[in-house]
Design goal:
The structure holds four protein chains of four kinds. Helices cover 32% and strands 22% of the residues of chain A. In chain A, helix 8 runs antiparallel to helix 10. Chain A starts with a helix and ends with a strand. Chain C has two domains: 71 residues; 260 residues, MetI-like (MetI-like fold, Orthogonal Bundle), CATH 1.10.3720. Helices cover 74% and strands 0% of the residues of chain C. Chain D is 35% helix and 24% strand. Chain D has an eight-stranded mixed β-sheet with strand order 6-7-8-3-9-10-12-11, sandwiched between helices. In chain D, a hairpin with a 2-residue loop joins strand 9 and strand 10. Classes of the chains: A alpha+beta, B mainly alpha, C mainly alpha, D alpha/beta. Chains in contact: A-B, A-C, A-D, B-C, B-D, C-D. Chains B and C meet through helix 1, helix 6, helix 7, helix 8 and helix 10 of B and helix 9, helix 10, helix 13 and helix 15 of C.
Chain lengths: 528, 313, 339, 326
Amino acid sequence: MGCNMHKKFKYILMFFLLLAVISASACIDGDEDGTAKGADSEVSSPELSVGISTDVNNWYLDKFPDGDGRFVWSQIYETLVRLDPDLNIVPGLAESWETPDDGKTWIFRLREGITFHDGTPFDADAVVFSYTEQAYVTQAVLRPIKSVETVDSRTVKFVLAKPMPLPFYLTHVAWPIMSPSCVDAEGNFVSPVGTGPFKFESRTRDQEIVLSKNEKYWGTEPELEKVTFKVIPEASTRVMALETGEVDMILKVPEYDVSRLETKEGIEVYRKLTTFTDFLQFNCEKVPFSEKAVRQSVACAIDTELITSEVLKGIGQAAKGRAYSPVMMYSNPELEPRSRDLEKAKTLLSDAGWKDSDGDRIVEKDGKPLKVTLLVSKGVWASRHSPMAQAIQAELAEAGIATEIEFLEGGAITQLENAGDFDMILRTGYFVWGPYPKHFFVHHSMAPYSHYSNATYDELVNAADMTADEDKQRELYYALQDFVLEEVPAFYLVHEEKIVAANSYVKGYTISSEDPWLNLEGVYIEEE
Amino acid sequence: MWNYIAKRLLLIFVVIFGVTLVTFSAMYLAPGDPAEVIALARYGQDLSAEQIEAVRAAEGLDSPVHIQYLTWFEHVLRLDFGKSVISSDDILEEILFRLPATAELALASLFLSLIIAIPAGVLSALKQNSLLDNACVFTSLLGVSIPNFWLGLFLIWLFALKLPLLPSYGYGNLENLVLPTLTLGTSMAAVTTRLTRSSMLEVLKQEYIVAARARGLDERSILFRHALKNALLPVLTFAGMQLGYLLGGAVIVETIFSWPGLGKLLVDSIFARDFALVQGCVLFIAILFSLSSLAVDILYAVLDPRIRYDRHD
Amino acid sequence: MTDMTESRCINMTEKTAEKMTGEISEKKTGKKAEKTAGKMIGNIAGIMIGNIAGKMIGNITRKKQVQEFRKNRLAVLGVLLIAFLAFLALFAPLVSPHDPLEQKLERGLEGPSLEYPFGTDNLGRCIFSRVVYGTQVSLGIGVLVVTATSIAGTLLGILSGYKGGLFDEIVMRGVDIVLAFPNIILALVIAGLLGSGFFNVVLALSLTQWPVYTRLVRAQVLSLKKQAFVEAARALRASNFYIMRRHILPNCMGSVVVLGTLEIAHVIIFAAALSFLGLGIPMPTAEWGSMLKEGIPYLLSAPHLTFFPGLMIMLTVLAFNFAGDGLRDCLDTGTGVMA
Amino acid sequence: MSLLSVEALNVSFRTGRGLVKANEGIFLEIKEGEVLALIGETGCGKTTFGKALLRLLSKNVMIKGRILFRGRDLLALSRNEMRQLRGKEIGIVLQNPSLALNPVLSIGDQLAEVYRSHEGCGKKEAEKKAGEMLGLVGIDPSRKAEYPHQFSGGMLQRVMVALGLALRPALLIADEPTRGLDLQTKQQIADLISGLVKQEASALLLITHDLEVAEQIADRAAVMYAGEIVETGKAREIFSNPGHPYTRALLEALPENGLRAVPGQGPSFVNPPSGCRFHPRCAFGTESCQKIRPRLLELEGERQVRCLLFESTGKPEEIPDDAAKS
């Protein structure tokens, strides 16, 4: 081996290595440049980047906006009626409303002088447009709407088939007021045009959505020039992105990161109890959960307090079977919730004939062991569900119930659910709109996803929904809460907290209890 | 050579046909009624039996399996991969939308791995049994043994969390590319280093290297003209296989780094039980892989005169 | 014997190459090899316990190769590690201080301590115990898949190479088709469709890994077929079955053992990757891949959740790679770097 | 005057199994323009000797002694000087041309490379010279773009000869140039080499186990056994009147002499036999052969023999003829 060659080869190698190092450092340099640029632009124009978990796949009223799309919608679109951070009803695009006949007819008086982002005037026609036949809300949610009529350019009349607290329903950001100019002459969707504080600028699929300030906003003028929503599906990645300064604010902070972020300098964590409550839904149409005793045994076996304090690190509030979060309307503060009672859980099972006769620590009845499946959404909505499910599994095992956990995407769960091919589902508190206790419909026998049928329950729900009398309504909803606690069509686990975290240079943010709403009013970036 | 290429082409058609059969039949492993799945996505949760049956008829799911396969195959030939069951997007469009991200990641990783592996492997072989060589052998074995999902997490921990230098997720900028490429590229570099080293050792043992030296050629041209050219041929053939490694590794790396590529699409669609999309993805990946192996084989034939001028085969 | 020793030293003996191959092949078919052939299948499973591998090599060839293997320090380290892991797997209940499934919610995310050597995870489970029990799952999958695929793949390879013709054509196209799906993708889809579970993972990996053996064995059979001792046996009208069993199988075993050892490493990584993606072993079973996945949220606050399972995967894979490399070097089978 | 003079050359390899002594105590001389045949059984160390001259052996080699080429000790040259000498002053035709040619370079390239490397020729000129050289060894220059695997064995050997003689070296070492060729081709190659060597006035060291070829073209011959030279002398005399028992045995193995192979196996290079290395296979061996290591005896007429039988009388005639045939 020539020594000459060695030298030459060394040089060549050095060259290659140098090349590698340079290209690597170029990347790192690039990063530094990027940060520097970001810092520069922060000074010149206040911008906010927000990490969200899903892209916005739908911008039009014909579909329900999935996932975190609603946070983006709430910047572009507005509703007739709004909720304040503590869930009190306040005027939105409508400045006032009245019901002359106890809930069957609702007349909304609209604010004046508002225009959509593209200059189209906001008037009664736009409201009618937003609640036409093709709108998702009129098809799926507000089926009792008989007509939406223009009284004059500033007045709209909703006529319903039965009395309903319509303003509550209209607070939901998923059915806001859209400009008729959202669609072309053929009725095909063109672009999102609303009245909100920010207007749509651009979207890069699965990556980001850029909004810019609506200069003509009717309300408080936004401090921010630009808002960028960055799509970061994994919760932990979102947290990292916040910590590394890739984004200024993140939504849906996972519970396990909260305490760390709270103590971390330069990061502010905002928390507020929401109307959502995680629950364990049973398939009451199928053995074993068709037996009330088994459901009750599950309810006794699970320690929601321990789960909340340890698994969720004290984020949220243990529900202990109580269906309603304390911030909900008609939530009964005197309700005596369940607490863990393993002995009772076992007794309930053995009284119902479930006994462990073969010593495998799993109870049987008629030779069939009590083995159940628990479906858990793998989706981006609730990263807390995986450890929760495992904790539940362990607690149920102590009572003699064997649980198999299956992680699936939401769609797949729906599929199994429809086929009735499941025993339990761990759910987030969905179908909650604002503080109004519409959620009880979930266990109504007419609901396709109910898997529970009980005439008494159905009657209570129907009556509560129909009555306009507040005291009567409260009484009925209290009764429903007692009923759910006792009969256990579902076992309510944790009242969810909404958690938003932001870098501390993001100022002026007020967190709202209403979940899919991000209020950026008054938010500004503090310059260093 | 043309014979060789023709043979390979013929083979690739047989293989792709087989691949379609496998992909199609794999879907029958899945539990559940496909008609119901589609109906669910189309009409929502409130399903009636009539709706399901209507879907079954409309989608041809009531015909015998072989007819279903032929219909599906015919569509595939016309580059119609069908529509996603969940989002009802066109599957091929969706795949092609995701393809650039995966291609970017794969090419960058391939580049990185070669830049590390070829010099390392060559140097290691030249200094066989030296400290450097031993270090190289050990490191590459270590590199082969580190699962890339662990390596990815480690890189995130170090570069994104401990010393926040690089982003841990996302796509679009150069700095987004760094960590995924490091994850995928270095583990591949380990494999390639091993291959380059052993190939180079093999070549250096050859008599024609001694012969070249005996003719008084300088070491530089012996190394670059005589040794490297021969040693890199197997490395090139291996690049075909590596593409498979890249595509497989991409599934994991894309998941870790939220990289919007084909691999993530595949995993997401598996969890969403969007079997049509799973089918489309797998088929596309397999065809892509087969075609690139073919390309590598042809390239090999062009580069290696033993095949290029072989008139018999 | 002495002749061989010397001829190995330098390239001065021109005939060396031919001589050596001829001799090895003949000696391999000697008595010892015949005895071993029958036990071979059982022995493959026995790779798990490292020293058996050593014994086997001794049986197939010569003590010298065992010595050579012993000289390869990394290989010895690999075998020792495998033995240690096998020990952990077999005696997991004795080794682990806690029940791997037992949760102490109030003691979650604790760092390493005397009570919990590797700390606890988010649900207060002992990571050390989980890691130890994880050995059972990973080695179990590795050994099961490799046993199944090496037997099936080798048989197909021998039949295909020996018989040739249409059968060969069909088998080889099957091999091509399965190998047309890159790396882990097919296993991923099969596992995804079947749903998670131990046996589904084994099935998914088995369905995708057999062609590796078939391809290797077939190539060897094709070259063995031309060797004098096989032709001689044929001239003596030995039955095809006899030739395959007595002459071909034993001569393929060396490279199958090497490939199998390296494949265990692959399979273990693949299985962990499936679990990492959530398509493998269902929770709460202690499995390294899913432990890693569960630890991701705590990457910064409690890195020990991801560190130890990952380390175990790496050590296990490294052990099998060391052993496989060492085996290949001393058996000198042309399995190739990638095997 | 001698062109190449090898003095007390020892070549050994360090291996895992001990020191392998491939060449021991070799003294050899080649004069300008002379053809010297180095003969011996396969595996006796001939090839090692040829490669040792050009320092082409693997890294684990130890070479002692002196190799004087035109007065310069090759073992003392720097790597670069050695490189310049290779091919230019001493050419070598390695055995087995199908392995010694690079499969991925065309033969024209491999030949032109020699000119470019040593003479600093431009691309065109080098190619022209390569074409001429191919013509000289009887290959159609139009085939220069072809690759080694496209040539037959005989043609490849011609390519090797062209490569060895490309720079008209003063000494050509040809290692088994006729091995593995059929009779007719063998003859052609032998004629080609001897013809070219004469034409270029080069000396030739012909390393071969083929005694017929050696007899045909060699001026002098040296016989090697177990890494030692056991006999040297004029080729004609050695072949007509072999001295060393081993040389006799070799000649008896020739077809025309009855095809009697040398009995026994080649000896170990790690632990060579005591005394005379040939004694275990020698038909005339005595007890003292096992103990006394014979030296290379200078006999009359430039003859050297390493055998105890000659020690007392110094005359080869003393070997009893009948004993040799028993």
